[in-house]
Amino acid sequence: MIGTAPDGRGGVASVIEVLRAGGLFERESVRYLASHRAGSRGVKVAAALAAFWHTALACMRARPAVVHVHCASRGSFARKSLLLLIARAAGCRTIFHLHGAEFDLFAGAESGRALRWWIRRTLERSSVVIALSDSWAAFLRGYAPAARVVVVPNSVPLPAALDRAGEQSGRILFLGRADAGKGVYELLAAVAALAPALPQLHLVIGGVGELDALRRRAIDLGIDAHVSLPGWLDAAARANELARAQVFCLPSHAEGLPMAMLEAMAAAKAVVATTVGGIPEAITYGANGLLIAPGDVPALTAALKALLADGALRQQLGDNARATIARRFSTDAAMAALAALYRELDR
To answer: Glycosyltransferase subfamily 4-like N-terminal domain location, by residue (predicted)?
Structure first.
């Protein structure tokens, strides 16, 4: 299996850590190679070159039955498509596991004819292409008709205990990359609209990104006292923030199937999210969360206001969200699906 360093930041690293912690690596004899590490350009180049070298050695010497690659867009695709080429040349079966929220943009408007051909060839030459949702599977089947596409949603562990005693009134949590594509500027605008009537309102934006710009924007809006920007949060800090939050909000412009949202659902939080990527396949409006169109500040403001004002609604949506994770996005189900693919390809 090849992907970003499991101790890194972001959704793909979280996916890989869930699989490792769940025991997939031991049960299926998975050797993991990191093709990307956070850090300087030199660190990233060194990680990529090491991945090419170790992948080539492993494919020639150990002859793995399957090479499973976790891939996003742009630079990630460039690295992974070449690693898949090495694996195919060595006679290995391959899995292309797509995570990129903007892969449709990358594979379409951003790519010229030659690159689109290479993307399509990479997908169609892979033994299996994994999509995170039915909507992403439909896109991939349309883009690369000869590819074999299967759906394996992201998964998260279900916390054993559920305790709302630590929730703080008016506390909203965002987890993810703090930039315009995740809708954080619209979230600040919504908080600015709500703050005059809700003096206890507090937004926590957990993640790296445009933190200085967001601080300036909060000051400009007069809500800096209502906003915290702690930066990257490790697993323990995320769990602590989830326990304190009344509402989880992810107003993204593009997504695959966000791990942070699934973690919030598993923690029985009322979720406000957008109708992008695989999100509408996990959240049904009014049943286990609230959905809005991306970029719609009035709708975002109204959804947050409704949840903050109605404890019974928050609890109902949160309980249903947790039940959705248990029923459809459990770690055991995801690992069973991957194990079945490995056994099928190892025949």
So the answer is: 37-154
